[in-house]
Every structure is written in C-alpha cells, then in structure tokens.
Amino acid sequence: MRPESTVQAWGPSVIAAVVVDELVRAGIETFVYCPGSRNGPIGFELSRREAAGDLRLHVRLDERSAAFLALGMTKATGVPTAVVTTSGTAVANLLPAVTEADYSRIPLVLVTANRPLAELGTGASQTVEQTQLLTSQVRHVQHLQVGAEPAPDTNARVRSQICHTLAIGRGRLHGRPGPVQIDVALPSGRPPATRSVPFPSGRPEGRPWIRTALRDRGAAAPHDIDLTRRTIIVAGDGADLDAVPETVPCVVEPTVDAGGRRTLHPWVLDHVRPELAVVYGRPTLHRQVGALLARRDVSTVLVSDGDDDWIYAAPHIDVVTAHPVFGGVPSPSWTEELGHVDRAVRHAWSQMLCDDGNRRTGVGVAKAVLDALEPGDLLWLGASNPVRDVSLTGRLPSGVRALSNRGVAGIDGNISAAVGAAMACPDRTVVALVGDLTFAHDSSALQSGVLEQVPDNLIVVVSNDAGGGIFELLEQGHPVYKTAPFGNTFERIYGTPQNVDFAALCTAYAVSHRMVETDELGTALRAARRAKRPVVLEVPVTRTTLRGVHTAARELADARLNPTAPPAGSPVTAEAAHVSALTS
Q: Of 110, 177, 223, 347, which sees the most CB atoms within 10 A?
C-alpha cells in the first residue's frame, strides 16, 4: 500500500483493496464470496489477503445460501461475517437471510458490488436500484462512489464510511445491532494487472480508521422486582439471564443459556397462576406463554434496553425496564408447587415416549437427539416442530449450546446456517435437527466447490414425517379438516408431502447419508462423529399420530395433577371452542 498522494487513479482494484483493507482492520475476519463479474476485483483482493493470512475466505454459488452461511457463522461466534456479491438479482437473493438477521439482531455485513450511478436507468446489464432492495431490513446502507478524479480526502472518506457502517451494525451508534449494506460502485469488473495492487494507506499499526466505543446509554432507572410475589421468568431467544438470581423459576426456550438453572416445562404455565411475569428476550415458541402474558390478572415486566420491538403476545405490559432489581426470595410453597407440576408434565412425556409407536414421531427423534448429545456440542434447531419438540421432551445437556433462526422463524436457510456454524466452530460437533421440508428447501447448502472447505464436524438429522407436521398440532390439523367437505385440502396446502429421494440427493452432493430408526439414532450419531465428513441421518417418522401423542401427554399430566377441569386458556381448550363453533 502507498500514501494516497502516490496513487494516480482509483481504478476498480484500488477501490476493492481499500474496502477489504478497512473491513479487515475493523475486525471482519471471515468473508463469504459469491462469484460474479462486477465484484471480481473484490474477489481478487480477498484471495490475495487470504494467502497473506489476513482473513478466511469461503466461496458459494448461491447468494441466498451464502448469506445464511454467513449468518450461521456470525450467530455461532458473535463476530460479524461479510458476504460479498455482484450486482443485480444477486443482491435481491440476500433478503431472506437479511430479514432473519434484522429480527434476531445479528450484525451481518453485506458488501454488494454495483455499477456506477450513471449507468442506472440506461438498460445496462445486471443494473438495478440495489441500494433500495434491502432498506426495510438493514440498519444502514452506505453507498461508496469514487469519482474519476478522486479528491485528496477520498481515502479518509471511504474508510470512515466503512467504520461508521460497521459501528451501526454492531449497535454502537444508533441502537440494536443488525445487518448493514456497503454498496461499492466499481467502474468495471476488470481484474488487476498485478497480484499486488498499490493502494492508499490506512491508520498505523493496522488500526481501523475510526475506533467507536460502545454506546453509553446512561444509567437506567431501576425497577424493583419483589420475589416474594408468585413470580416467573419467561425467557425467549436472545435473553441474557446473568443478572437473574438462580432461585427464580424460569421457563426458557432452547436457544437461551439457562446458566445451570433448573428450568420449567412450558406446559407448567397451563396449571399455575403467577402474580408477576418478567420477560427477557423474544419468546415465540409456546402458546402457553402467549396465554400467560395476555392475562389481565398477571402483571408483566418487559426487560428491554429500549431497542427491541414490543413482545407481540403481551398487550398488557405494565412496566418496561432496562434495570430490574430483584429483592426477596421466592416462597417455598410457590417453588414447591412449580416443581410438582413440572415433574408431572415431564413424567407424562417420559411415559409417552416409552411407547415404540410414539417414539416414531418428531418428539421421539428430538428426545433421542438430546440423549445422544455430548458436552461441547452445538445443536442447530430447525423451525416449526424441531425446536418445539426439544423444548417439550427434555432439557439441553450441560455444556451444549443451541442455536436457531428465531428472528422470523422461517424454514429457509437452516442447512446453510448450520453449515456456517460448523465451519465457524471446527472444534465442536454441530448436530442440526430439522424436518424434511426444511431440509428439502435448503438442501443446496450441501453443495460446495472442489477447492472449498467442507465441514467435517456437521451431522444433519432429518426427522422425515413426509410433510408439515406442525400443522397437525394447530387448529387446521383437527380431523374435521381432513374429511368431507374439505377432502384432501389439508394435505395439499398444509401437509405438502414431497417426492424427494434424500439418499440420492446426498449422493449428488457427495455427502454421506444413512436411513436409521429412532431407536438406532444414538448409535448412528456416535458413528457419525467419527466419520470426519458431513453426515445426513434420515429418520422416518409419522405425523398422523402426532396430535394424539400431544393429547395423551396432556391427559397423563392432568390425571397426575388431578384437575377438575381443563386449564383455562390452554391451547386444547381454545381449539375445542374453535372447532365447536365451526361445526355447530
């Protein structure tokens, strides 16, 4: 690199070199590159800097999958990862992952090559208004345009704009962290004439151009939480429970680090009546939580730093605070009541899964996976049933971390994100538990170039129930919708079974595949750990009995607790009323 005054012109290779250099200085260690023409100069510079040991580079064909790969890496490590694309529809393909990153507060960095602004509206190939494509889902869009005759301060301007954008993405300036876009206008995609391109210098000693300290929010006003009241913590994705006393009873989602706490089964909420619910993170999994937070006789405290959306299921929030102060201790009678109900519910599920037929369901697969995990494992949970099944059938073993795309909870990109997590954490075994539709939707994530790194620590467990099992448990899964006058409507628009040969699909991607029964899954997972290559374990299960399994588990728990009536506001009660009204 050279002082700015010695660089005669800012051609595409110089622009690319400055952008990559400042990104590296600002802490971006990993780049996922999608081949293209306009972004070629950036690709050459990334390759050069990887050879110098300055960064890690991965190449993927599909921009949608690449963005989810980068998302998984960022989620697993907490360090922003950049995904680099060419212009045109390549940028539009980033939207699904960007949306997930937005709502799950993941600082994904999008580096999009563009044509010069003068070419917009001229009909030039692969030219679209791409700075507006993602604006509703990114924290900031920074367009970098260098003129034909750069001003003396061009280097400082470009580098400071990059630092400013990354500070926003990390949540250090405007609010919560999230995805940001750096749109780089390049006069051409012409590759460099030499391997090493002279470019203007950055700050001495490899420092970023601007160092941005964490945003100072000031001292938040404290709010007292009286634990002598019947209090329960509800912790959704993104929750940080470090400041919560370990004696406080908690219902947590699988992606929350419970910190060694003995957590409660979500169905406990159907059988108890807290006075106070304290909400951390963004709970979205269980209707029991929504029913609790909607109760007018339960006070709700939302713990928020002010940058979160309101919890959708808590219309009667009493207090929003960033500084809860816990005082007192939970009464023994309250903790004993909760423990009694929790044991009854978990015993009911344990009894249900002793039956061979019941184990041949998604909940049986989830329990088998939980039983086979080892300390240090990372569990990636697909949307819909897998993440819920894990929550219902057991607890994460000690030393196991769970991740999931809970921002918008879609089935898109789950395999790509799991691959990203595995590549970012090579010293951990990553077990991904997904449904068959999730796997089919994103199976191209298993594709990798012959020169690319392949995650040898990834095991994908596909719970194959031939369709959308979660809908069996919702109102539309009631038997009334599977008979006249509805006919096969349920199967066509909800069940949606697919005619996909997963074994052949894995063979096409050079990935190991094995069909196993639920009872064989523990042994198969142990063998897969030794394979040192990506392994897909397909477990055939049924979804037609899943509704009955849930109903029977609830009846077993109710019988053990000796209720006099169905719990008020429970999903079963609400559904019964809905179906009764429909058929009356």
A: 110
